[in-house]
Design goal:
Its cofactor is FAD. By secondary structure, the protein is of the alpha/beta class. It is built from 13 helices and eight strands. Helix 4 (69-89) runs parallel beside helix 5 (108-125).
């Protein structure tokens, strides 16, 4: 059942039609619990509240399905505005960028120019940039952008290692001099490039974390799995790894009590804070990652007696119908 739900929501996440329809609803389909508003001011206010609890943030101006230069340029300008807002407000936050949002699927050189323009401003203000990784077809182009940005603005940029890829350890070893976020992976990938069994992914994830903690410049342990978190807490203690070498990361809206508790325990903690009108693809992948997330949405949108899967499918269908009006 879990695998069926995952495939269901991953399929929905790739629908440009549903994405367009979802924007008409704002965040009324439950996404308001995991997306920090639709504009910069709302996102900055959310981050300010997190900072008051000893939690830093990485902010993601959501955007997908970018297929022309005008859309990519508009996204770049919005991200530049986010960098400016972080600087002016003084909140403790860095930014996360998806290369596809600023033109990777259009033209590599065009995308690189956009990222470099963002990096120039971030470098001026001392704001770190994380290049989010997406699906496998974008993996190596993103690494190339990483290297190009680092060559011009050293120390300002890092990226993500996804544990479900067979080559993840090779990539981790190659980029261990960068600040790295280690994740399990949230896209549907074929078996020839990625592990598909949860147990295999989890095992590789822990293996990558341990290597990164011992060898990488800085490690972001990005997971909501309390068992893995407990293992990492024990591992860093046994190997005398300083708290300044790593942080825990979770997504905004998930396991908030644990986020606060880890911060209170003295661990560096960063919350991934997404915002924007283009929230649909992100939201669907969060539902695909953890079937438990369905309950969160169902409580806010549908009658509790409604079957969760049917309710969400109906919601997705409704979005699609309304988007055609």
């Amino acid at each position: 059942m879990a695998e069926l739900l995952k495939n269901f929501f991953l399929t929905l996440s790739n629908s440009r039609t549903l994405n367009a329809g979802a924007q008409k609803f704002g965040l009324k389909l439950g996404a308001q619990s995991v997306v920090a508003g639709t504009n910069i001011d709302e996102a900055i206010e959310t981050i300010r509240h997190l900072n008051e609890q000893g939690i830093e943030a990485t902010i993601d101006n959501l955007g997908e399905f970018v297929h022309d230069r005008a859309e990519a340029t508009a996204a770049k300008e919005q991200i530049l505005a986010v960098v400016e807002a972080i600087h002016v407000s003084g909140v403790q936050s860095h930014i996360s960028i998806k290369p596809s949002q600023v033109g990777l699927d259009i033209d590599y050189d065009f995308c690189l120019e956009n990222v470099l323009e963002i990096a120039e401003k971030a470098y001026e203000y001392g704001i770190f940039i994380n290049l989010d990784q997406e699906n496998y077809s974008r993996l190596h182009p993103t690494f190339s952008i990483l290297e190009a940005v680092h060559a011009k603005y050293p120390g300002i940029v890092g990226t993500v290692i996804q544990a479900y890829f067979h080559e993840a350890m090779d990539n981790l070893e190659k980029y261990s001099d960068y600040r790295l976020r280690i994740v399990k992976g949230a896209y549907k990938e074929p078996a020839d490039v990625a592990y598909t069994d949860k147990a295999d992914i989890d095992a590789n994830y822990v293996k990558l974390l341990e290597y990164s903690l011992l060898h990488a410049k800085y490690t972001s342990v990005a997971t909501h799995d309390h068992t893995i978190i407990a293992h990492i807490k024990k591992f860093v203690k046994e190997h005398d790894i300083s708290n300044d070498k790593f942080e825990f990361q979770m997504l905004y809206g998930f396991r908030s009590d644990m986020q606060k508790e880890l911060a209170k325990e003295g661990y560096h903690f960063t919350t991934y804070v997404p915002f924007g009108e283009d929230w649909y693809g992100y939201f669907m992948r969060r539902l695909a990652e953890r079937p438990q997330n369905l309950a969160l949405v169902t409580k806010q949108v549908f009658n509790k007696k409604t079957n969760t899967l049917l309710g969400l499918a109906a919601g997705a269908f409704l979005i699609g119908r309304l988007s055609k009006r």
